[in-house]
Design brief:
The complex is a heterodimer. Chain A is mainly α. Chain A is built from 7 helices and no strands. The radius of gyration of chain A is 29 Å and the shape is flat. Chain B is elongated and about 105 Å long. The chains are: A mainly alpha, B mainly alpha. The complex binds fe (ii) ion (FE2).
Chain lengths: ~230, ~230
């Protein structure tokens, strides 16, 4: 009786193993989805670690700025706030910051980076705040945010120019030139624009803040010709 | 003695009437914007609680809409990373790069429009509210093959579409607190047809590519061709 049981169990085990083997060969006979790697000379990949890290980090910084502008846009489009001009300005800025992040990514790709671990480039960015007392406060915070970004960009330039021993003292001329010549230029122009808005609106806020913000909002909505457009029409 | 009692009753009843009418007028005052606006014009400052764009089932649907925006933003980053993966010199598939980038851009722009929709309905955007959804498609590894990226893409888009269906279902329920025709119609017009098109395209692409990858010798040329036509189709 016992030996019969043993025989049954054994045959079950054998059948099980056969099934598993069949299944596995099935899996292996599936599609050829991955191409074999190609030997590529690596001499052209010259960026060094300290510099790469700073550049990758900057992507997240730009996206935090994008999300903060997005939150500003959301705040000023509320029906109880209703500053459509401010909302438009900040929504546009949000998409611009997202483009800045993409621009940094493209640079890294051009230099042969980002071949692995792309997940850590974007780590679920959140806005720095969700509501503001008034338009002037939001503009001032935006300027502070931009100044902070500028500081980090300068830090990239100095690290990539002089990465130290960890980076074999590799002076990355092109990257530094690109950051200072192209990237920082846009940054300084943006800061100047914000500062101008703050000055003009801030002056008017002294006497009648509600009226000042109302008018400035319309200016942001209709552009520089807002008075001739709306009054003459 | 009798007249004294009578006077007393008169006095009490008038007090009750005054108190009641004050109470009733308060109730009505609290329900309408008009009385608040009129009140605001009198010397005493008045809080306006009803002068907003909220009506219908929006209060209860608001959280769902906020969650929807956060899902769109999250999916936008995921598609952006998929597109980055196919843009490095080792993968080098411009067609796949553009495809995933176009999905990221669509979701980002949809998120901005959905925020505008939320504020149109008197709401605010809460960027920190995310519904816990363990069954939802996520990406933990972006180092995927061309075919696998299309599989991921269809999963991600389906989850966005299904979430839209959920909001639609809630807002079309015959329920005082949920029924909201504007939200239902907005979901229909803005999303459901677009999502159906995208999911159909992806499914077509997946099945087309799958057949071509059957032959090991030809699969790499097939991927090259597919990538180039993918770019042309966009
Ligand atoms: Fe920026």
């Amino acid at each position: 009786m016992k030996s019969k049981m043993k025989f049954l169990l054994n045959s079950f085990a054998i059948i099980f193993i056969i099934i598993v083997c069949l299944k596995n060969t099935n899996v292996e006979a599936k599609l050829q989805c991955k191409a074999p790697p190609v030997e590529i000379p690596k001499d052209w990949i010259t960026m060094v670690d300290p510099c790469i890290k700073k550049m990758q980090n900057q992507v997240q910084q730009e996206l935090i700025a994008a999300m903060t502008y997005l939150a500003m846009g959301a705040h000023f489009s509320k029906d109880t706030v209703n500053r459509q001009g401010f909302a438009k300005f900040f929504f546009d800025s949000a998409s611009e910051e997202r483009e800045h992040a993409i621009k940094l990514i493209h640079y890294l790709l051009m230099r042969g980076e980002l071949t692995s671990d792309v997940a850590q480039l974007i780590r679920d960015p959140f806005p720095l705040a969700e509501s503001w007392i008034d338009g002037l406060t939001a503009l001032k915070e935006a300027l502070q945010l931009e100044a902070n970004v500028t500081k980090k960009l300068r830090d990239i330039a100095s690290t990539c120019e002089n990465p130290g021993k960890d980076g074999d003292n590799f002076n990355d001329y092109h990257l530094v030139d690109w950051i200072t010549g192209e990237y920082l230029e846009e940054q300084y122009k943006g800061q100047r624009q914000l500062a101008g808005h703050i000055t003009t609106l801030g002056k008017m806020m002294h006497t009648n803040p509600a009226l000042a913000e109302y008018l400035y909002d319309k200016k942001l909505l209709f552009g520089k010709d807002f008075i001739s457009d709306s009054v003459a029409a | 003695m009798k007249s004294y009692v009578k006077f007393d009753i008169k006095m009490y009843s008038s007090i009750i009437v005054i108190v009641l009418s004050a109470f009733i007028s308060n109730i009505f005052a609290a329900e309408y914007c008009y009385s608040e606006v009129v009140g605001a014009c009198s010397p005493v400052d008045n809080v306006m609680e009803n002068c907003n764009a909220k009506y219908g089932g929006i209060d209860d649907t608001m959280k769902e809409l906020q969650n929807y925006v956060n899902l769109q933003i999250n999916r936008n980053w995921q598609f952006l990373l998929l597109s980055v993966h196919f843009a490095n010199y080792e993968t080098n598939r411009p067609g796949f790069t553009e495809l995933h980038k176009s999905y990221a851009d669509t979701l980002w722009n949809d998120a901005i429009d959905e925020i505008k929709h939320i504020t149109k309905r008197g709401g605010h955007m809460d960027f920190f509210y995310k519904k816990k959804n363990p069954n939802q498609a996520e990406i933990d590894n972006y180092d995927v093959t061309e075919l696998a990226s299309l599989g991921k893409a269809i999963d991600l888009w389906k989850s966005v579409a299904e979430e839209g269906h959920y909001i639609h279902r809630e807002s079309t329920r015959r329920h005082d607190k949920l029924h909201d025709p504007e939200v239902a119609s907005h979901i229909e017009n803005k999303y459901v047809h677009k999502h159906a098109d995208i999911i159909r395209d992806l499914s077509g692409n997946i099945n087309e590519l799958k057949v071509m990858l059957n032959k090991i010798e030809d699969s790499n040329v097939a991927l090259f061709l597919f990538d180039n036509f993918l770019k042309k189709m966009k």
